[in-house]
Amino acid sequence: MKRKSGVTLFFKLQHNIKIEMLIFMIFVIALLSGCSPKPPFVIAGHITEQSVSTLEAYPEAEPYPYYLLKPEEYDKHNHKYPLLIFLHGAGELSDELKPVVMINGPCKKIFDFNTGTIDQKRLKELNLYVKSSFVIYPQSSSQQSWKESIEPLISKIVSEYPVDTNRIYLTGLSLGGGATWDMAALDPKRYAAIVPVCGYSWAIGKETLAGMPIWAFHAFDDKIVQIDSTTNPILEMILGLDMDSLMKNYPHQNDNMLKPADKDLIISFNKGGDAKWREDISNPAGQVNYTLYKNGGHDSWSRAYDTEAMWKWLYNQSR
Length: 319
Description:
Largest sheet: 9 strands, mixed
CATH architecture of the largest domain: 3-Layer(aba) Sandwich
Order of helices and strands: HEEEEEHEHEHEEHHEEHH
Mean pLDDT: 87
Helix content: 25-40%
Distance between the termini: 55 Å
């Protein structure tokens, strides 16, 4: 076996040092430019399939009474937890806190349709992402209709509980989906990501959401809140594009603009420009993602909140 000369070893060592220095410089540049890789979300070690969260009601809170879901034994571990806020639709508006506010969204499994009550025995059935979070279900009245900011409520929860302020997520459906756009536009630095579902909103200021991770959902045949309510905020105010940039590639049946595609599709954008509709609706490949179901009417939320890929994507977003 031939022995390597001292000169060969010297140059090999020098080569390795150069590579290590290059890696170190790339890491430093990434940190200085704010492009450092963000750590993936890790569910707290004590949260398992058998864990049972605690649910408490705060009916006298103002401006919004609310339910608060708390992770099991959150106060016995040195851990910070994500905060998820769900904004309900017009069908759940009420002047007082009612269980029906939980009929949809991340905690819908604990609502008993037969009795119209919350079944706390079902808390174990919630998914691990929800179990590992503080979850707020605010109750809006018909007079409020989400016109008042939820920021005071978020600040209260953050001050009283171990919340990871880099992982605060906002989602809502229909009226609450529109409020998701609005609330996030008012305070974009508060949220790590948003998931608006078939929400109607034309509020000025959504350009402040540029750079915000978003996954929006809508159904093509929604007659209550038409798809323009989702495409307009995404395109005109966030990406600076026009409607044609999104719908020109949409494969309408028989090229009929009034008909949906044959399949549910998703389109993803990073920094503007053209994008194509894809069939892999479980793969949000961009910073801004839009799932358009071919049908479903004004109920995009049942499928959206049952999409495991959505929860994985959402919880891997951080500020």
